[in-house]
Amino acid sequence: MHTNDYYCVIMAGGAGRRFWPHSRQASPKQFIDFFGCGQTLLQQTFDRFRQIVPLDHIFVTTHKDYRDKVLEQLPELAASRLIVEEERRNTAPSIAYAAHVIEKEDPQATMVVAPCDHLILNQGEFKEAILRGLSFAAAHDVLLTLGIRPSRPETGYGYIQIDDEQEGGFYKVRTFIEKPAREFAEIFIQSQEFFWNSGIFLWNVKTIQQAFRNYMTEICPRVDRDVPDFTSCPNISIDYSIMEKADNVYVQLCDFGWADLGTWDSLYEVMPKDRQQNVVVNGQTLLYDCQNTIVSLPKGQLAVLQGLDGYLVASRDNVLLVCKKNDQNAIRKYVNDVEMKFDGKYS
Amino acid sequence: MHTNDYYCVIMAGGAGRRFWPHSRQASPKQFIDFFGCGQTLLQQTFDRFRQIVPLDHIFVTTHKDYRDKVLEQLPELAASRLIVEEERRNTAPSIAYAAHVIEKEDPQATMVVAPCDHLILNQGEFKEAILRGLSFAAAHDVLLTLGIRPSRPETGYGYIQIDDEQEGGFYKVRTFIEKPAREFAEIFIQSQEFFWNSGIFLWNVKTIQQAFRNYMTEICPRVDRDVPDFTSCPNISIDYSIMEKADNVYVQLCDFGWADLGTWDSLYEVMPKDRQQNVVVNGQTLLYDCQNTIVSLPKGQLAVLQGLDGYLVASRDNVLLVCKKNDQNAIRKYVNDVEMKFDGKYS
């Protein structure tokens, strides 16, 4: 293993609001101690990678609004390892710039890029998978993504269809499918050819740099410099700009207990449940005649709930949300309405 | 009118918990600004009677635990007008003692006794009704109660069946009926012979003193003295000990927009509703696809609620309660459970 050439980039710039009211504009989900475990999602992610790559090989990208929050939550992160975007430009520009910075430091580097809003249940398996992936990416001219064996026909995730096996556990990618309709998701599961796209990518810096030159020529002069010009970069994701276009894209099949904490519903799916299939993420509760319900409260708060089936009950600061948990898009609408009506007071 | 012989006794000792989490052991509903109007129920009641009898003719009875709360909320109340019970003994003993104190001060006195957990919508009509009742009670040897024309077959209230009319609006009482079953309540409404028992009583001090001597002989030596001995008094209500036994009981028919704030459900009934029959007592709300639901939040809190039909959503301090609002007895059970499980922390 060439651990000294391994780098990590943690993406911590999201403003995700589907976890409102827990996530707020001023404090998106990555900065929240979601599980009441004493660590925010960002801190959990950082700790996870500290066990895999050297401390000063971990970069964190974020938006300028969250610069202080990141430094405060990660006191061990040197300011030089923090990549700050002046403008939100989705994942491609900041990954391109991170690759440029890392290549300047170590032209042999192989890097893993990871969001920090994931739940990883099995840290040991995760570490093993990342090291195996870094090793494969170091040795091959490939863009590698981690694919998760699906446990249910989830419609909130992207899927990867696999092609031929390259070597043990590594497959060529046939196609990416964004959030499918329920009936397709069910077929995907049955076919055993489809895996959840974790959004965790691994590649040699040379390979990703070449991919940017091939598929996003216009971005290179804006990020291949000491001070990147994010403002003039296109607002585009790495998935759309590179992964869905390149022909050297591979997937590594993994099974380390993974969930994208993209929505309350996805959180519900992965959390331990009581006999009535209720999940209490956080807080004290007394539940009467409740089923399939997820509850998350601030520390020290008590909720007495009765007669709820399939609801989300979430409270944070001065906001309470009670709604059916299966409507993924509804919360976004609520937050917009709250913004319109209360002029940012609660959003 | 002999306003100078008119006295008022406000009963403010209840520990009612059916409004939990708004009411707590340390702060029952009478001490709460229920409607976010800037006044607690006790303050509203006090102000209501200040417009009817002289300020220093208003007595307040309470339990020793709430002594300071009453004096704090009613800075105009002289300490000498506060009757403090060392032990909870229901309404009969404290009313008997209040009658003794008032009779010593003014043997001609006629008094009105009122709880302070009522909602009165029409203050003008209320004042008129009380003055009419006091005048009737001053002139007759009667125990008078105010009866409210029922607007719905409420099963949470007591009813009074009327007998012959004595004079305009004043009827002899045939019988009292405690909280009836639904089918009886419906018959009561149709018959037009039944009225809600408001629990507001009016009588001459001589008349009520005589009634105590007739029906509760044992109480007299314990309260007809400077320092009453509540501890050795029986724990009994004025309704049960006197009103249901005496033969000079009358009812005055009233219609001033009255509700007993005994339960969330009764509060729901009297409050203005939106087109989906939702009631927002307090707080900012965005309601989606909600019907027949009542919401009460602390000041400055926002609730976004979706898909609730017939629920109560109440939040106060560190407690949230979401439950079906039509089960009157359930909340008492929840509070007991909370007490057992969390050792008084939230009750």
Model description:
The structure is a homodimer of 347-residue chains. The first copy, chain A, is of the alpha/beta class. In chain A, 29% of the residues lie in helices and 28% in strands. The first copy, chain A, is built from ten helices and 17 strands. In chain A, the strands form four sheets. Chain A has a five-stranded mixed β-barrel with strand order 6-9-7-8-10. Chain A has a four-stranded mixed β-sheet with strand order 12-14-16-17, with helices on one face. The first copy, chain A, has a two-stranded antiparallel sheet with strand order 5-11. In chain A, strand 2, helix 2 and strand 3 form a beta-alpha-beta unit. In chain A, helix 3 packs across helix 6. The model of chain A has no long low-confidence stretch (mean pLDDT 90). The interface between A and B is medium-sized, with 32 and 32 residues.
Task: Write a compact overview of the structure shown.
Two copies of one chain form a homodimer. With 347 residues, the first copy, chain A, is an alpha/beta fold. Chain A is built from ten helices and 17 strands.
Task: Please describe the topology of this protein.
The structure is a homodimer of 347-residue chains.
Chain A lengths: L5 E6 L29 H10 L7 E6 L3 H7 L8 E4 L5 H15 L4 E6 L2 E3 L2 H17 L3 E6 L10 E9 L2 E8 L4 H10 L2 E11 H11 L4 H4 L14 H6 L5 E6 L3 E3 L3 H7 L8 E4 L1 E5 L5 E3 L5 E5 L4 E6 L2 E6 L5 H13 L5
Parallel strand pairs in A: 1-2, 1-4, 2-3, 6-10, 12-14, 13-15, 14-16
Antiparallel strand pairs in A: 4-9, 5-11, 6-9, 7-8, 7-9, 8-10, 16-17
Helix pairs in contact in A: 3-6
